[in-house]
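Severity: low
Component: inverse-folding endpoint
Summary: output formatting inconsistent between runs
Steps to reproduce: submit the following structure tokens with default settings.
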């Protein structure tokens, strides 16, 4: 049985596209570094918010 994805709501749609993008050989090489950079940026923002 394969993995199922719920695209019936906005968050499910976005997360499904990220999952498939990470699996796609043409997109993975560009998407992965972007997600890493985004995660780092979000972590910095979170840390700044905690300091307030």
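Observed output (run 2 of 3):
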């Amino acid at each position: 049985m394969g993995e199922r994805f719920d695209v019936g709501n906005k968050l499910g749609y976005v997360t499904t596209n990220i999952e498939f993008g990470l699996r796609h050989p043409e997109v993975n090489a560009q998407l992965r570094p972007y997600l890493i950079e985004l995660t780092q940026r979000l972590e910095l923002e979170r840390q700044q918010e905690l300091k307030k």
